[in-house]
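The freezer alarm interrupted the setup, so I double-checked each line after restarting. Inputs confirmed:
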Amino acid sequence: MHESLLINIAIAVLFLPLLGFVVTLLLGKKLKSVFIFENLIITVSFIAAVYLLFSKLSFFPDKNIVAEFEWFGFGIVPFFGEVSVKLGFLIDNITVIMLFTVALISMLVHFFSIAYMKGDERYNRYFAYLGIFTFSMNGIVLTHNILMMYIFWELVGLSSYLLIGFWFEKKSASDAAKKAFIVNRIGDLGMFAGILILFLTYNTFSFSEIFTQLSEGVLPFDSHVWLTVTGILLFGGAIGKSAQFPLHVWLPDAMEGPTPVSALIHAATMVAAGVYLVVRIFGLLTADAMLFIAVIGMLSAFIPATIALTQNDIKKVLAYSTVSQLGYMIMALGVGAYKFAFFHLITHAFFKACLFLGSGSVIHAMHHEQDITKMGGLRKKLPLTYATFLISALAISGIPLTSGFLSKDGILASSVAFASLTGHWLFPIVGFLVASLTAFYMFRLIILTFHSEPVDHHKFEHAHESPFAMVMPLVVLAGLSFFIWYTPNPINADSGWMISKWINNPELHTPSQTRFDFMNDSDVNVNKTSNTVMYSQSYSDAMHSAHFPAMILSLLVAGLGILLAFYVYQWKKLNADSIAAKIKPLYEFSLNKWYFDEFYNSTFVAFTLGISRLSAWFDKKIIDGIVDGSATVTRHIASFSGNFDKYVVDGLVNFTAYLSGFIGILFRRFQTGKVQTYIVLVIFSIVILLFVFKNF
Amino acid sequence: MEVGLNHFLFVSTILFSMGIYAIVTRKNAVLVLMGIELILNAANINFIAFSRFGNFGLDGQLIALFVIVLAAAEAAIALAIVLNIYKNLATVNIDEVDKLRD
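Predicted 3D structure, all chains:
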């Protein structure tokens, strides 16, 4: 086993989907069956990713494999030193786990789509888009520098745009695609500014080189504040891509795309790229930046959870739950629970992809009906979909034996530990509240869709279990939602291989006075080169004591939420409509998504449109007026000069010619052509001259 | 009465005037040429007269000799031209020879 083999395999994993994209796009119109090639390529890429995962984790568990090459260089730049831009791969445990997740879900979504998208007129193009998405996502995961990450970051934005607007004949779909692209751009602007600050300061894009220089005390503009600002600006990219408050508005609209796309891009992988970015830059986040991140994460966990309570579109509920779960991960990173954030990213990717594909199966069975109030009783018609959906819903609600329980419990325990050390008790309180809300709306969704009585009997009679290509991915993903893949202990992940072996705590590189107190260890001599985080003894103590109560409490709130959902929707002890009528303002507020879209439309969008109109008016009236005015003036001057030329200059010339002609006419009679006449004239002239000049 | 300068000048003036008169009035090209000869000879008389009565040595006689030679050459060329004109146009009337004017 050699490192270069791993790097070559990583290159294959990265570029195979690109090959699939190019081939499928070019041959798509001529060759109807070229999508099989794309599926084959993605399967090969998955196998390579699996091989990469196993060989990395078994042969190089504690080693970061880096391969880089110079992309272009400028030589020595004045005032700046040598500028050379390098691209390259960083293969550590996080990379291979993430790569495996992306490749697996991408492959399953490909298979699912074979059946789901059957009969679409742009069938092959759809698979081509999935291919370029997989390529870009692999690029984000594999990169060792932030410039390459930014490039692929924009590429996933592009493929997301293409896939949301896949059915661009629908105006809502093309609008949603534009919205997603533009909202993402706002976040990316922050990320770009952050990258520029990093490059100006460190003259490199590579994460490890930046961290090394940061450990040596090099700070952006020699100030701790600017380090915080840089962290927050970079996090701006994550706010956009991971649909965090206040830029979360694009994700629910993105559900206009095909459902398998929602599963792959807008639930499992692309939106997790923001979390992955924060994971990568974790080493340079100061305490203030982390607190900012935690607050954003908390708001993003809470607000969409309240909105999801009242939504009736099956995909909208799942979309808001995605934002909410991503908020969990971001909050976890903010409170320093690095391992659990990444753990939750992986577990969430599996069970949320399963939920979305399950919803795709339901929508497929119901002939593109998405309103859960028109479903019901599908349990009998779609037994496999129901079973997998239920397992995933249990996982997202945090019920023991599932993967979601482990990761969510870890996050909640960390937030409790964080609160006990710093006094920010709002984080755990909101965390538990959101856990209970999540359990409630997920089971509201399940009961309305699969339990209760069928609402639309006609559609119910025609509903049927989906074909094998669609059910198989569901079963695989539901299987991955069990605890056994991550740890042998179903109630505590700490001793499992995922947390204790595979995900290592990162080194911190920030100056110690900018960190949280619990991240500075007073009694252990900090070894900069070790791969372990410098969490203090007090943190592990707090974590230890927080774990058990947090687990009980999270179980309690999740159970409460599920129970309430059954109480209201299954047993109908309470009438949901009458409750909604009683708290009508709150209900309306949630139903209308906290009026975010309306607020943005009337402020930012209206403001931008106003500016555009003003500048259009300015352009039309002032600029065009100046241009037209100068044209008129020029025309008048030209016409005056033309007249002057015509009458004065030409007049003089013509007068001269006329005068010459006149004199010519006058004198022509002297010229007879007879020499003798001339001689007579000459002699007479001489005689006259002699008389005139005579001096006698 | 002594023959003096004035007599010579008088004769040459008459000759000159006759030459001019011939040039101006005659239509025949040969007669015009003869007029030119008269004028040249008037000039010759002047040269010799001034040479004899002025204090110029033999310069006048010398130039007169040149003029005679020149007149011979001139007459030869001019007569050749006239002969060619007659060949081409069948006339020696100089009023009718106006082809260049067109």
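Quick read of the result. The beta strands of chain A are 65-77, 81-91.
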